[in-house]
């Protein structure tokens, strides 16, 4: 474990199927690839990146509550819950650190039901869509930049 700033990277349902599920949309990389990439990126940039994935909504809510209590930044790909879960949105509303909403695909270029997000109103750090797995490192980079002094 790193001595850096703790960041939770939380992934919702079906993301454990990366590399198998619709590779034409989500790519060929696996969740293990994503985890290795984010943890290594975090270590190189002074962040203690803790990766988690669940297919169980209550578990995700518990992790969001943990982040709210700890005040740590969250990078969240809520997957299908983004568009359906008021409970996930309510948990995001309680966060005290920055929240980055990340989607591997461009949800706005997909089915109409994916255009609404219960997470977006609380994404104080930003919303990154359609950038593939690189969207996660863009979010982590923003967390690192957040700790740097203003040059103005």
From TrEMBL:
Pfam families: DHquinase_II (PF01220). PROSITE patterns: DEHYDROQUINASE_II. Substrate binds at residues 77, 83, 90, 104-105, 114. GO terms for molecular function: 3-dehydroquinate dehydratase activity. It comes from the Bacteria. Keywords: Amino-acid biosynthesis, Aromatic amino acid biosynthesis, Lyase. It catalyses: 3-dehydroquinate = 3-dehydroshikimate + H2O. Its EC number is 4.2.1.10. The record marks 21 as: Transition state stabilizer. Pathway: Metabolic intermediate biosynthesis; chorismate biosynthesis; chorismate from D-erythrose 4-phosphate and phosphoenolpyruvate: step 3/7. The active site is at residues 26, 103. CDD domains: DHQase_II. Homododecamer. Catalyzes a trans-dehydration via an enolate intermediate. Belongs to the type-II 3-dehydroquinase family. This is 3-dehydroquinate dehydratase. It comes from Glycomyces tritici.
């Amino acid at each position: 474990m790193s001595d850096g700033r703790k960041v939770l990277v939380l992934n919702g349902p079906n993301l454990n199927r990366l590399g198998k599920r619709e590779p034409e949309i989500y790519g060929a990389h696996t969740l293990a690839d994503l985890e290795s990439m984010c943890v290594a990126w975090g270590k190189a940039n002074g962040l203690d990146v803790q990766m988690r994935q669940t297919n169980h909504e209550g578990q995700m809510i518990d992790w969001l509550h943990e982040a709210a209590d700890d005040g740590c930044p969250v990078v969240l790909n809520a997957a299908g819950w983004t568009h359906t879960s008021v409970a996930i949105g309510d948990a995001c509303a309680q966060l005290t650190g920055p929240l980055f909403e990340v989607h591997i695909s461009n949800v706005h270029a997909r089915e109409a039901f994916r255009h609404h997000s219960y997470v977006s109103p609380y994404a104080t750090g930003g919303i990154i869509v359609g950038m593939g797995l690189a969207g996660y490192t863009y979010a982590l980079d923003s967390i690192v930049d957040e700790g740097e002094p203003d040059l103005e």
